[in-house]
Specification:
The protein is of the alpha+beta class. The protein has a single domain, classed as DD-peptidase/beta-lactamase superfamily (Beta-lactamase, 3-Layer(aba) Sandwich). The protein is 42% helix and 20% strand. It has nine helices and eleven strands. Strands 2-1-11-10-9 form a five-stranded antiparallel sheet, sandwiched between helices. A two-stranded antiparallel ribbon has the order 3-6. A two-stranded antiparallel sheet has the order 4-5. The chain is globular and about 50 Å long.
């Protein structure tokens, strides 16, 4: 990876975009000061993302996750593994399955009206509020980019919460994910459990059948207005999104399972699925795996 060149070009493009590029969609009632404060906060966050990536890239350590699996999706060959069949809570990796079920059971042109019940889950987003009419696409983006729990919950309530969870578990069976079970659409419930082997099957299915999910997870320029009309950015919480090698995927965190990751990377022209469960540093673990693969 030519990180120095990439980071330099990224920051140049980033500053040009935010300070010079016109934003027709910017709400008229946002003052210049409000917009500037918001943009400064976004820039500070972007800098922290790159600092974290650089710091973890330099870490010399083994792979610390209790369970991990790296698979070449072209032939399903296993490259690296540790306890791939050990079951762990998934956290927000769950949202990959909820995205699949949403795309396969809700009309892509569907507009969904949000209700108070839909928005009860932890982590409410300012741009998702009762009475809002929102497209399936934008709810998926909120769920996958910023990992908005209320967005995932809204999708499940639109189908019918029990029915939606049933469809998630049914899909897991169809994909031969024998050690996987879901109890919610967002991953806050630690009873949502799976194995690295099962999650690779899900990643492979998404890669072949729903590449739009992976494309969404690479985005970091998604905005929606809040109830006052002020545009709010949904920050991508998968810090690998700036890397050209990142094809797409999802991360998660719960105290019971620490950090999780299910992502695909392009390594030397090969699509490599990497799953980490129970990691105390998913960035360092992922870089360690990528280094081993390249070597």
């Amino acid at each position: 990876m030519k990180f120095k060149t990439f980071f330099s070009l990224f920051f140049l493009a980033f500053f040009i975009f935010f300070f010079f590029a016109p934003r027709k969609a910017q709400a008229a009632n946002q003052t210049i000061t409000e917009k500037l404060v918001q943009q400064i906060e976004i820039i500070k966050h972007e800098i922290s993302v790159f600092q974290s990536l650089i710091s973890n890239l330099k870490v010399e350590r083994g792979i610390g996750a209790k369970s991990y699996l790296a698979v070449n999706l072209s032939d399903d060959s296993v490259i690296l593994e540790k306890n791939p069949n050990q079951s762990y809570p998934l956290a927000s990796i769950t949202k990959l399955m909820s995205a699949v079920v949403s795309l396969e059971n809700i009309d892509k042109n569907q507009t969904i009206t949000l209700t108070e019940k839909m928005l009860e889950s932890s982590g409410q987003s300012p741009s998702l509020f009762a009475g809002l009419n929102i497209s399936l696409e934008n709810l998926l983006k909120a769920s996958l980019i910023q990992s908005a729990n209320d967005a995932s919950e809204s999708l499940s309530y639109f189908v019918g919460k029990e029915k939606f969870i049933e469809l998630m578990n049914q899909k897991a069976k169809e994909l031969n994910m024998a050690n996987t079970v879901f109890y919610d659409a967002h991953g806050l419930n630690p009873a949502n459990r799976s194995t690295a082997s099962d999650i690779v099957k899900l990643l492979s299915y998404i890669f072949e059948n729903h590449p739009e999910i992976l494309s969404i997870t690479k985005e970091n320029n998604f905005w929606l207005p809040d109830s006052t009309g002020t545009l709010r950015k949904f920050q991508n919480i998968n810090n690998f999104y700036p890397l050209s090698e990142f094809v797409g995927g999802k991360t998660g965190y719960l105290p019971q399972v620490k950090q999780t990751l299910a992502s695909i990377f392009n390594v030397n022209g090969q699509q490599i699925a990497i799953v980490l469960l129970y990691s105390d540093n998913r960035q360092a673990d992922t870089f360690a795996i990528l280094k081993k693969i390249r070597n």
